[in-house]
Amino acid sequence: MKFLVTGGTGFIGARVVVNLWERKIPVVVADLNLNIEWTKQIALLKYQNNEIKLAEIEEQIRQTTFIELDVSDRGAVNNVFLTYPDITHVVHLAYLMSAEVEADHHRGASVNILGMVNMFDMVVDHKLTRLVFASSETIYGANHSAYGGEDYAIREDDFCSLDDHFYTYGVMKMLNEFTAKKYIQTKGVSIASMRPPVVYGDGRMRGSVLWACEFATNPALGKEVKLPFSKHARDCWIYVDDVAEQFVRLTLKPELKYFAYNNGGHSVTAEELMQTVANIVPDARYEFDENVQRTSLVDRCDGARLEEEIGFTPRSLADGVRAQIEEARNRQLQTVY
């Protein structure tokens, strides 16, 4: 067994790679802009006080191959599988985020549409065991009112029309899922998608939701945070390490009941979110923008299907926020010393 993780040194990808190192599963890490030291640091910080585990992780790092890869280049993608013919599983996370897509639609389509099709072709051509890719909660559109009240948890089979969408990114995810189903039906391959909500944690470096890092990391480091929406804005949140665990478990499971899975998460208002931070960092300084009543995201997603499929329940919001704060502080200490 060997994994390929595309986007493997990105925000979620790096955590997936660390998760595989912990399991001692061989991995090829591919990214257009490799951030190898960042990925290593996540693992080394986590086990800095455990010499035995740290030594094991360091050995996994030494055995890992890091490669630069543009997934929109079919020849380059195919060459990865020719070079490493023992790759059996893929977690595909190489994707341009919303702001990047809106800034350059041609590049966005090249990576997000053509790049995805290239990966689907690899599943067929190289007889891979499983490919799991990141879809998104944006597949459900930009407003929870399309599904009723905020208490309703959106399920995987709920429908959203194009009229209810705001992000081109979300519509691209819809096409990715539609295309994947065609491959499953016509080629008999094993492909699955997961639809994360707002993924929070330390280390998010790009994209239109940097606030999903800053809300806890800034207070942890004694900095003020400004959230670009009202205190009443509601979103669904899940910790990045839990998303990584979900990706790995879903990719490893021999048989799957479904194609698409919500990641679940905790539905809270911005005020409730920051109170969670303040319970851990009492001197946290933060403010909201009351001119922006809500984000262009749905508010609550049902994660029961995925929990049942892989036997894993994400940690509480408080535990996730605490983990992010501890990591941010540990990273700052390491930088200082």
State the gist of this model:
Keywords: Carbohydrate metabolism, NADP. This protein is α/β, with parallel strands linked by helices. It contains 12 helices and 12 strands.
Tell me about this structure.
Helices cover 45% and strands 15% of the residues. It has 337 residues and is of the alpha/beta class. The protein has a single domain, classed as NAD(P)-binding Rossmann-like Domain (Rossmann fold). It has a 7-stranded parallel sheet with strand order 3-2-1-4-5-6-10, sandwiched between helices. The protein has a 3-stranded mixed sheet with strand order 7-9-11. The chain starts with a strand and ends with a helix.
Descriptors:
Rossmann fold, single chain, 337 residues, 12 helices, alpha/beta
Task: Give the helix/strand layout.
Layout: E1 3-6, H1 13-23, E2 27-31, H2 36-46, H3 51-62, E3 65-68, H4 74-83, E4 89-92, H5 98-103, H6 105-125, E5 130-134, H7 168-187, E6 191-195, E7 198-200, H8 211-220, E8 225-227, E9 234-239, H9 240-252, E10 260-262, E11 266-269, H10 270-280, E12 286-288, H11 304-310, H12 317-336
Helix pairs in contact: 1-2, 1-9, 4-6, 6-7, 8-12, 10-12
Protein name: NAD-dependent epimerase/dehydratase domain-containing protein
Domain NAD-dependent epimerase/dehydratase: 4-255
Organism: Sphingobacterium gobiense
Structural class of the secondary structure composition?
Answer: alpha/beta
At the fourth level of CATH, the homologous superfamily is: NAD(P)-binding Rossmann-like Domain
**Order of SSEs:** EHEHHEHEHHEHEEHEEHEEHEHH
Rg calculated over all Cα atoms: 19 Å
CATH class wording: Alpha Beta
Question: How can the largest sheet be summarized?
Answer: 7 strands, parallel
The overall average pLDDT, rounded, is 96
Put simply, the count of helices is 12
Portion in strands: 5-15%
Strand order in the largest sheet: 3-2-1-4-5-6-10
Shape: globular
Give the total of beta strands: 12
Q: What's the structural domain tally?
A: 1
